[in-house]
């Protein structure tokens, strides 16, 4: 199956949403190539990811969007080397700054995590240690990955809390997670992730549930780190408005496949995959969140099925034709723009001409 890695850097520039200014050529930081992840469960094997390819360049922010259950978190856990015991990577490769992540075991992976690669988890309460003060938890990361002495670590921990707009950070330094609201815990998680100024940030719904001002402050902080330190960010979100505002490119996932990836404005202005079109159309103006959207017709297929079609969207797709049963992979349809569809949108005029001359 074709595995085209949509790669802005390879083409020498990255389109920034809303501007025409190209960035300097950037090195690839994260390369996911033809990745497959399965879960062995009592009721069958869940084929959670199949033939997933995606690359992130230094300084780039890529949005990962798709309905609940499409595989966004499984992909981010795999990239971070955090595996559920039931999970198996059955195909493909993962590279970070040219290093083979699948060859990194235990201690080597731990050394990368936190310092070079950091993740903001979808569920902050579960990710925080309930019996350790939050300031100490930031210091733990600094102690593991920097040579700052104790007083400097404490200062930096308080600075990190202030950066994510925790009010009265000196006092909150000593608070335990149960003493803080959910939104405050989320900000602590973000502070921990950003404490060592990582080269790659995977942010799984980082601002969900936060008020608009805090959300803007956190996204500004992430944007600043991207610009100043060339941090690459994979932003997983249900909020298409947020993705549109902050991402250079967007990858759309459906049922464990990346079905489309392209520059943000191109994707919003002229989506090529029927699922991308439905996602955008179903998002009400003003709400801009997949949580609020009018349901997309049909459900995600059961990923335990042994007869999954090559296009996992086929059973929901009004454009389905005979050719849709053939094997499928991402194919370039424009600059940095690829789609996995046998009958992508925007090909009607060509089809009509073909019929007219037949
Ligand atoms: N431990 C597990 N065992 C079995 N199946 C799993 C496990 N973890 C995830 N899955 C399955 O993998 C698929 C992808 O799940 P994932 O959590 O990545 O979705 P998601 O896109 O992050 O959804 P959400 O937007 O709700 O966070 C789903 O079908 C899910 O049921
Ligand atoms: S390959 Fe066919 S069934 Fe699948 S999304 Fe494209 S048109 Fe629809
Ligand atoms: Mg998730």
Could you explain how this protein is built, in words?
The protein has 358 residues and is α/β, with parallel strands linked by helices. The protein has one domain: P-loop containing nucleotide triphosphate hydrolases (Rossmann fold), CATH 3.40.50. The chain is built from 12 helices and 12 strands. It has an 8-stranded mixed beta sheet, sandwiched between helices. Strands 2-1-4-5 form a 4-stranded antiparallel beta sheet, with helices on one face. Helix 8 (212-229) links the parallel strand 7 (200-204) and strand 8. Helix 4 (134-145) packs across helix 5 (150-163) and helix 5 packs across helix 7 (182-194). The protein is globular. It starts with 27 loop residues before the first strand and ends with a helix. The model is unreliable at 1-22 and 352-358 (pLDDT under 50). Iron/sulfur cluster (SF4) is lined by residues 274, 311, 313-314, 317, 319-320, 324, 341-343.
